[in-house]
Amino acid sequence: MESYSIEKDLWDKDYKNIACIDEVGRGCLYGDVVAAAVILPPYTYIEGVKDSKKLSENKRRILYDTIYKKAIAIGIGRISSQIIDDINIKQATKRAMLLAVENLKNSNGQIVTPDYLLVDAEHLHTTYPQESFVRGEDLVHGIAAASIIAKVYRDDLCRDWSLNDRNYALDKNKGYGTKEHREAIQKHGPTNNHRLSFLKKILK
Predict the structure, then answer these.
(1) Three-state DSSP class for 79?
(2) What distances in angstroms separate CA 111 from CA 58, 130, 197, one per listed residue?
(3) 139-166 pLDDT tens trace
């Protein structure tokens, strides 16, 4: 069971809008890196929430809907493959995370400002107080929730991308470097949405 003891300590200190942030797609060969920021109401625990990689697709989608219903605010940040190539994946991930924080909105579309950030792995350049956690999805309940939001959002993007770039089975591999995906790149070449900086060995 994912603990929310870290959030509870902050709620006890009267922090109300704790934004938990995670990303997905960092290691992909294709497409955007996507980050999600989630603010849950104080003392909220959602049964079943854990690292998105440990959940089935069906369970992720059920929890995705539950998180959206319960959350005070959710924000998404996306950085394209072209920018990833320009600034590197680490900086792109941080930029996506900051965009997710900037895009935090409630169900009425109103901007919600966090008062504390709990971030998976990275330290962000911002004035908000923050803490970073390696393997945050396993340590912080809200980061696990953010991982689910980011994963489902990006998986849906992959399905859309697969309609345009049909040769790469993106709806199956989600842009990761599977054998099938690598062979498709070698056969058909990269698209405009591939991360060229990730393909040097494949295209060599």
Answers:
(1) strand
(2) 30, 19, 35
(3) 999 999 999 999 999 999 999 999 999 9
* pTM for the structure as a whole: 0.96
Binding residues: 22-23, 120
Do 117 and 19 form a contact (C-beta atoms < 8 A)? yes
Token readout for 174 is 């989600």
What would the two tokens of residue 41 be? Answer: 């109401």
Q: How buried is 110 (Cβ within 10 angstroms: 0-12 exposed, 13-18 middle, 19+ buried)?
A: exposed
User: How far, in whole angstroms, is CA 11 from its chain's centroid?
Assistant: 24
- 5-198: CATH architecture: 2-Layer Sandwich (3.30)
Residue ranges covered by each domain of the chain: 5-198
Within 8 A by CB and 6+ apart from 102, the residues are 75, 77
Annotated binding residues for a divalent metal cation: 22-23, 120
- pLDDT single digits (tens) 77-116: 999 999 999 999 999 999 999 999 999 999 999 999 999 9
DSSP summary character for residue 197: G
